[in-house]
Write a structure and sequence with these properties.
The complex is a heterodimer of chains A (421) and B (301). Chain A has 421 residues and is of the alpha+beta class. Chain A has 19 helices and 14 strands. In chain A, the strands form three sheets. In chain A, strands 1, 2, 3, 4, 7 and 12 form a six-stranded mixed β-sheet that branches. Chain B is 72% helix and 1% strand. In chain B, α3 crosses α7 (164-191), α3 (70-105) runs antiparallel to α10 and α10 packs antiparallel against α13. Chain B starts with a helix and ends with a helix. Classes of the chains: A alpha+beta (421), B mainly alpha (301). Chain A binds chain B through residues 1, 5, 8-9, 78-79, 82-83, 85-86, 100, 103, 107-109, 195-196, 247-251, 254, 257, 379-380, 383, 387, 390-391, 394-395, 410, 413-414, 416-418, and chain B through 10, 13, 16-17, 19-20, 46-48, 68-71, 73, 138-141, 157, 159-161, 246-251, 265-271.
Amino acid sequence: MKKILLIVLTLFAAVGLTACGGGGDNNNDDDYLVTITFWNIFTGPDGEEMINLVNDFNAANEGVYRVNTQTIPSNDFYEKLNTVVPQGQGPDVAIMHLDQLARYAQLGLLTSFDDLASDLDLDETNYIEAVWDAGIYESKRYAVPLDVHPIGLYYNQDILDAYDVEVPTTFDELIAACEILNDDTIDQWCLPLSNVWPSQLLFQASLYQHGGMDLDEDGLYPAYNTQNGYDALNVFHELIFTHGVSPVNTTVDEDLALFRQGKAAFHINGIWMLNGIIDSGINFGTASIATLFGDTPAVWAGSHNFVMPRPAKVNEDKQEAIVAFITYVSENSLRWANAGQIPANLTVLDSAEYQALPYHSTFVDIDDIMFPSLSPYFQDSFEPIFSRVTDAMNDPNADIQALLDEAELEGTQRLNEALGN
Amino acid sequence: MKRSVIDRLKEKSSLLFIAPHLIIFSIFFIIPFFYGIVISLFNWHMFFPEMREFIGFDNYQKILFDTEHIYHEYFFNGLGNTFTFVLISVPLLVAFPLLFALLINIEPPGYKVFRGIFYLPSLLSISTLVLIWRWVLNTNVGILNLTLSEVGLDRIPWLAEQPFAWASLVTMTVWWTIGGNMVIFTASLKEIPQSLYEAAEVDGANIFQKFFNITIPGMKNQLLYITIMTTLASFNVFGQPQLATGGGPSESTKVLMMYIREIAFGGGRPNPGIATAMAVLLGIIMIAISLFQSRIIRRLG
């Protein structure tokens, strides 16, 4: 009996002690060392390069700054941010997607770079204008762009050569090419299309190419339920069910798998897939999709941005370290290009090394890039279309107009809720 | 009579024994349980405590009666889908383990191996389970469809079209959870005195008569327990549709738990007040149904 009591008490004491032990993490050896935490969302091959960049920064600033990085899959990332930042437990610096910036700035979860004690030593003429401007919400800067990541067309050079087909640039050319390239006898598809990710990005590109808009001019209500929106969505329904360019019910990464296996002539995906496709060893090239679905040149693109989640207490030493880190990564973003992204830094973009990269310059014309509306309500109003894009690509009898109506209604209801109406 | 010091200490020591469980139970169950109810009565701003306001039953009113409201639609779509899953899955999740338990109870040669095999899937995590089944059910490269097309049949969109999507989700759930219930059933079959069967045989009862008049009444308690626990588990279904269908096609497999999670933490616009109110409503429904079930089964017994 006594023995058991003793054991229980010891266990309690042990738990208590370890709990206390976690409290103080002062490192007495390096009193002047400033440590910052950095959350990134790069889980692919780009993640390794980001960790290399962090390690190199740490090595270059030994004893002065130290960055501890943590990689979190982007699905979990925003949920984690939502729960820890209000507690003042967030990371010092993090990566955020462009279409989330306005919402997080509006929610008050980000610190503006304008409020820094030390100036951010970045020259705005050094950045792609559209993406630099996207970091501003209500005339304050909340984000520094790292890269731009558009979607584009990957084509299998060997298949095109075998059938003597040129890379299509318009919808008609695509259809014509597919009539030749779809070959049942050898299980070869022209353009396998996943009905889930990244289909919503393809729809967005198609919407802009048809002259449509995602949200209205005020960045509030859904604006995609129009003739343009109808045409934009119908393109994918027809590609699958009228022209048969893709196997039906293709899900995420199946389209990619077919292309990597050399069973598909074309594949549309983000530039972030570049290394994955290089690894497959097929002979391929890249082209812009700017006019593939409609007449107005437009390519959907996202962007990774550095942001500073609101801290519990402002710490100027840490802010200095953050600025140093962001500057370092930006200046070294050619390495980021090798990881499969387009750097936002113009100096890097204009460099001979970047121009010499085999797949980047043909992937997109920077002028064609279209970002989604920079509104804090983008998700509320636009997200409901995503599952309808899936339905349109899944169901041979889909009623395109009804899908748009449903999405618009749900988007409007969600927006009203968000606006507190 | 005066109690000795030792006796009193002994009494106190019992507290020490339940303390570890009590503390963990409080932290992870009791406190969140009541905290959740509190949150459901607030317009709970996730980020700024000063913006939280007490609104009584407004969240419940919105969810249940405000037909114009998006959360009303989400709740009833989610609840309907959850009910569909429960109605299809629970009978199978009870019947199949029972069948397998009966077969194993006959103790055919190698039954121990089979018992192990049937139990094996229960050890898998939900993500492993779904990953395996996605490779089986994939429309274009799945083993099942490749086999179908080998024998000249059409490929079936197992996860992308109804009613196949429900069939797939239920099948993987049955495969996954057969082991747990089966073990309970096999144990309880052993409890039934063999003499009853022998007596019945003397009276000339056939196999079905023996099953319904001896086996079923003999394991009434276990049957009740399994039915209730399985129903509750099925109401909480989340992982299978989340990972296998993503709620599709057309949000027809998007169960209530998926909506609740999305509204509570989701990227869009977290609204813990609404989410907890939905969770409380689901909890009330689950309690009501298990009470109802226990009555029915007791009466049958």
